[in-house]
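Board notes, transcribed. Complex of a protein with BIS(adenosine)-5'-pentaphosphate.
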Amino acid sequence: MNLILLGAPGAGKGTQAEKICEKLSIPAISTGNIIREALANGTEMGLKAKEYINAGKLVPDEVVIGIIKERLAEDDCKNGFILDGFPRTIPQAQALDEMGIVIDRVIDIEVADETVVKRMSGRRVCSKCGASYHLEFKKPINDGVCDSCGAELIQRKDDHPDTVLDRLKVYHEQTEPLKDYYEKTGKLKVVEGQEEVKETTALVFEALEN
Ligand code: AP5
């Protein structure tokens, strides 16, 4: 199954992508994670993306389209994939169509802007493996330390409150129109994302089946 997860920053796309990945055994592809990895490795693409990502702005379309083209050509995508954070603009969605990629389902996870701000301010990520935690909703076993690899947990630069507001603005202006784009294809399912993770997961799984 080829899936797209839509939603505001902090809607829980990454969290739900992990659950779907476990259930369907298909890779979850996060353009945000790919860009952050490139940034950490100091690659040319990472350096190009740095100022955009840290300011909460979108990285230029041609850069992310290139990333996705390469990633979807890999072997593990042959039986399906979950796109988390791509497409984020109409031109990115059009590029996916032009690649001849057939999308089976688009799941839009809906949360209020106030919830986004609360979730982002409490998120902490592992400085080494990128695993994601929350100070209130998904606490690590030991404060400030990753359960998986033992490295230090940090706050993403773009999770600082002012940047979160900028990211929300960008989301409403550039990404939200994708709901209409996919509504017209009949592939869109809207899921309520305000409740606890397991409740959202149940709704997401239901949306995959119907
Ligand atoms: P990206 O990493 O994709 O950021 P995002 O979409 O803003 O997504 P997040 O990872 O912040 O949120 P999420 O929805 O995955 O939520 P999560 O599950 O982590 O992109 C970062 C940047 O990269 C962009 O700003 C841009 O610069 C660039 N970029 C990436 N893709 C691009 C593209 N296609 N085009 C251009 N630029 C691009 O949950 C958030 C927190 O809430 C966690 O702490 C989690 O534990 C907690 N949580 C989740 N669900 C619940 C729940 N139900 N109840 C309570 N807490 C919850």
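The two ends are 13 Å apart (CA to CA). The first strand starts at residue 2 and ends at 7.
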